[in-house]
Specification:
Helix content is 67%, strand content 7%. The strands form two sheets. Strands 5-4-3-6-8-7 form a six-stranded mixed beta sheet, sandwiched between helices. A two-stranded antiparallel sheet has the order 1-2. By secondary structure, the chain is an alpha/beta fold. β3, α21 and β4 form a beta-alpha-beta unit. The model has no long low-confidence stretch (mean pLDDT 85). The protein has three domains: 343 residues, no CATH class; 90 residues, no CATH class; 110 residues. It contains 23 helices and eight strands. It starts with 6 loop residues before the first helix and ends with a strand. The longest helix is centred in the middle third of the chain and has 28 residues.
């Protein structure tokens, strides 16, 4: 495989993926509620001086396995506790995923250009950019799944690499289990077995190399789980295996997503700006599967698609990020379709593709203009937006001037760069975005103006983790009429007026960071026995002081 790889392609992919996925990752503060969840957990692990037990709000928490927290802690060691350090490893794994997909494309299609287009599609897709620049488990987990599938196919395609390919398959699957749980082995193993079943070659997998690989898998994946069960017993089993896995299968955390079309629609939309090509690529894949002597990679993609979709469609809890392990397969399918259309020079197909590409390109500046008008209150300064739009059109013009003889490739380049260009907007409009995305500024103001002590900070449910991260103080949640966190948090949860009043009476003065709805609830509660002072508003967050009259 290495002999067939283009060094120029690898270097270009490294440069582009760094720009698309990592450059400027420290610009935005850590956002609510999930980024600060993982980062605060790793931060508390540092304070507790542990590498094995995740902590949140001073207590062990079992919502996710340990591998992501290891990555976060290593990032803290290298760069300190910052937004960049927290996002470093998701971005790094994103870059690794791009290179791994390129290798799989070269191996499977036997074509460097087709593999390059596929890798370009992956790194410039909306969800891939988003998860590379966000502190979630999904990018790390999905790339480990990808690496397991790549190494298996390497061992399958190269007879002399069978042993190493199968062993590495189990190694990466073991790490995936440490990243997100049993799905780390379930998804790649079922995909591989289905692929070999389609080809009637199951004996390839069930051999002594797999036995050795599975033993290595157990040595990687099991010790941490065994240690947690030994330490915490049923508490860990109930939270991790039941609440975080089984409960999500039988109960919808986000009920509006629990539909048959959620994942098919998400696959297409979240690959923007390549949505049209992804949709068409399903028809292209079916055509290739019907051809006599079709390449094994097409059957591999089919098995990959079926397994991931069936597994996650069966669960009632549905989120776009759950099927993210499927997105490398979608990129390969789209890349294959695009390159086939280009190489076969089908004039009508290329014309349609060009038209769709330009329509897609036009969506970005038009969307920004509409956003300026519709959400003007969230954009204190319009100048950065106008600068971005101007820069965008200048770039498009330059590409047309210098690449006008290669119309189709111009379209591909335009699509590949337009979403990363949004990052320019982020850089230019940082302050405007920070105050609505994170709690840092509100937390800093509160710390500077509120006396430290044992009093808990009252905050809205959505802000609890961020306030804790940026203040290092204990918190309590006000959420009148709400239900508790999906996973239990060891903090006071005040969902009735009586609970809020009891909490306020037990503190001489209560400082809070709340949202508009929580502020209205506090105003109603404070009318009789309390004095409510509105200290400052930063973005959507209101900093208040409640004291006894």
């Amino acid at each position: 495989m290495i002999k067939n790889i283009s060094l120029k392609h690898v270097i270009l992919l490294l440069v582009l993926s760094y720009i698309f996925l990592m450059l400027g990752n420290g610009v935005l503060d850590l956002t609510n509620p999930d980024e600060v969840f993982y980062t605060q957990t790793a931060k508390e692990m540092v304070h507790q001086k542990t590498w094995t037990v995740p902590y949140l709000f001073g207590q062990p928490q079992f919502e996710k396995p340990i591998f992501t927290y290891w990555c976060l802690r290593l990032g803290f060691i290298f760069f300190g506790i910052t937004s960049f350090s927290a996002r470093f490893f998701p971005a790094l794994f994103g870059i690794i995923g791009v290179l791994a997909l390129y290798g799989l494309g070269v191996l499977g299609f036997g074509d460097k250009k087709k593999a390059f287009i596929s890798a370009l599609i992956l790194m410039s897709g909306g969800l891939y950019i988003g998860l590379s620049r966000t502190v979630f488990t999904d990018m790390i987990f999905s790339v480990l799944i990808l690496l397991s599938l790549v190494t298996f196919f390497w061992g399958y395609a190269r007879a002399d690499k069978k042993a190493l390919g199968l062993i590495l398959f189990f190694v990466f699957s073991g790490l995936a289990v440490l990243a997100k749980g049993p799905l780390g082995i379930l998804l790649p193993a079922l995909s591989v077995i289905l692929f070999l079943g389609i080809r009637k070659e199951l004996k390839f997998f069930f051999c002594r190399y797999s036995a050795w690989g599975f033993l290595l898998f157990l040595l990687i994946a099991l010790p941490w789980y065994a240690d947690m069960i030994k330490r915490f017993g049923n508490a860990f089993i109930e939270e991790f295996f039941y609440n975080d896995h089984i409960r999500r299968i039988v109960e919808a955390e986000h009920t509006s997503n629990d539909t048959w079309y959620f994942y098919p629609l998400s696959m297409v939309l979240c690959m923007f700006p390549w949505s049209f090509y992804v949709a068409i690529s399903f028809f292209h894949l079916s055509k290739k599967l019907k051809e006599t002597g079709c390449l094994p990679i097409y059957q591999y993609l089919l098995a990959w698609l079926i397994v991931v979709l069936v597994v996650f469609q069966a669960a009632h809890s549905k989120l776009v990020s759950y099927i993210f392990p499927l997105f490398p397969a979608l990129a390969l399918m789209a890349g294959d379709f695009i390159y086939s259309a280009l190489s076969e020079k089908k004039t009508r197909t290329l014309s349609v593709i060009s038209f769709i590409s330009w329509v897609t390109v036009a969506v970005i500046p038009i969307g920004l203009v509409v956003s300026i008008i519709r959400f003007s209150e969230y954009i204190p300064s319009r100048l950065p937006v106008y600068c971005f739009i101007l820069f965008y059109f200048v770039l498009l013009g330059a590409m047309l001037v210098f690449l006008k003889q290669k119309r189709f490739m111009v379209n591909m380049c335009l699509l590949a760069v337009q979403l990363p260009l949004i990052l320019v907007f982020v850089f230019l409009n940082r302050e405007s975005l920070n105050i609505y995305a994170a709690s840092k500024k509100a937390a800093q103001y509160l710390v500077a103006n509120a006396p430290s002590g044992d009093n808990k900070i009252l905050c809205a449910k959505f802000l609890a983790r961020g306030v804790r991260f940026y203040t290092d103080r204990d918190v309590a949640v006000i959420d009148i009429g709400g239900s508790n966190f999906f996973s239990p948090h060891p903090i006071p949860y005040l969902n009735t007026e009586e609970k809020v009043m009891g909490f306020l009476k037990n503190q001489q003065a209560t400082y809070g960071i709340v949202t508009k709805s929580s502020l209205k609830a506090l105003e109603s509660i404070a009318q009789k026995d309390f004095k409510l002072d509105k200290l400052k508003t930063i973005g959507d967050e209101h900093i208040v002081k409640v004291s006894l009259k």
